[in-house]
């Protein structure tokens, strides 16, 4: 990527939201905050999601790059470019797995951006963008815009192996990072309540 002399004095951040309104809106709020601080913003999305992002950031000086939505994802209608268009949320995991096929077009578009990218902030479900960022030597931050508190507690329980401490789902355990908080496995919704976390939700 070639640096543009007009943008040398500014940071340039690429934002890539997951194709779901609940994930996109918080990242667009972050975009507004960054724009207020003079940061150049480029947002990656798909053609069907472009109008929502454009309207949400109406009047803002942002670049929006459309990437083609993958075709022939098993079970996913071609017009379903966001989770609210899925005929059933049972297709959520196939949807997430399918959008990783956007990686080649994302990398091609990233390579063609003229101003140097300071970092990439992408949704946690777009985990494959880490490999793309590493390929170009760009720092990547994972963005989770929903349920910060509950996700932090769940992460603490998972990484410290607390979910497998007791046989009973009702026996409390103390969080390592939050010793004033006690939880039980019954406090977690599936699939976060499993004693031995496995499966596609954990890969994501």
From TrEMBL:
Belongs to the UDP-glycosyltransferase family. PANTHER family: GLYCOSYLTRANSFERASE. It comes from the Eukaryota. One of its GO terms (molecular function) is UDP-glucosyltransferase activity. This is UDP-glycosyltransferase 90A1.
